[in-house]
């Protein structure tokens, strides 16, 4: 019999993952043992085409079991929401009562408590800073462990989002549980081989440092409009120092004094290209109100 966690690990993409979380949130006391186990796999055997464990619904032309059919129907409705979602896998010394009692909202799509030290949250990516701040404020210095943040979409035909979740579990005990750390993956494939990102210093952060970076991105979006953000990105990616020096002077003449002071204080010209890409990737993870 498959457990709730087994069902999550069988999801292929973020929409299936979210649909599964919704199902278990709506049916917290469901008895999975009532599902009928299917027969041996064969060309005409009654076996669910998705989970390949349970028997399909006993109706003509049904290929899926009751739970798989619900997930596949629900995934269509939540597909757009899943595109802007992130998954957080937490391995901590204790799970707060507030986290255990959290319910799905417009921004927090679902929560799963695996045991006394492991939990999973799926949320809108632009709510990440606020969620981390609430977690730190509510738990204080008592909370220690590792929060692994990964995008909910998988673009690989040979691996699904459940596989990437298993890789996150594989890496969770690599660091001591002496403080609360964040591991931020910009792409699921980085879970398989995180050494390069670790060497660049762009993978593991203390939770307060990571929150500070998200706040920097918010300030960045306030002082630089989208077009100037892209102009700066193109400028920082130039390989010729003389060409960069020429265009840098022209760029400074186009931005406000506050923006100049910000870029000077951050010493953005000293950033590596990897740091620049990472910082610009974080832009998608902060909320910025649109003007009417």
Instruction: Please report the distance between the alpha carbons of the first and last residues.
Output: 53 Å
Quaternary assembly: single chain
Q: Find the count of extended strands (DSSP E, 2+ residues).
A: 6
**Gyration radius, rounded:** 22 Å
Order of helices and strands: HHHHEHEEHEHEHEHHHHH
Report the sheet-strand fraction.
Answer: 5-15%
Gross geometry: elongated
Number of helices: 13
Helix content: 40-55%
* Strand order in the largest sheet: 2-3-1-4-5-6
Average pLDDT, to the nearest integer?
89
Classification by helices and strands: alpha+beta
| Low-pLDDT segments | none
Largest sheet: 6 strands, mixed
Domain count: the total is 3
Question: What does the secondary structure layout of this molecule look like, with pairings?
Answer:
Layout: H1 4-9, H2 14-26, H3 66-77, H4 79-83, E1 85-92, H5 97-100, E2 108-113, E3 118-124, H6 128-139, E4 145-151, H7 161-171, E5 180-184, H8 195-199, E6 204-206, H9 207-223, H10 226-236, H11 241-252, H12 257-266, H13 273-281
Parallel strand pairs: 4-5
Antiparallel strand pairs: 1-3, 1-4, 2-3, 5-6
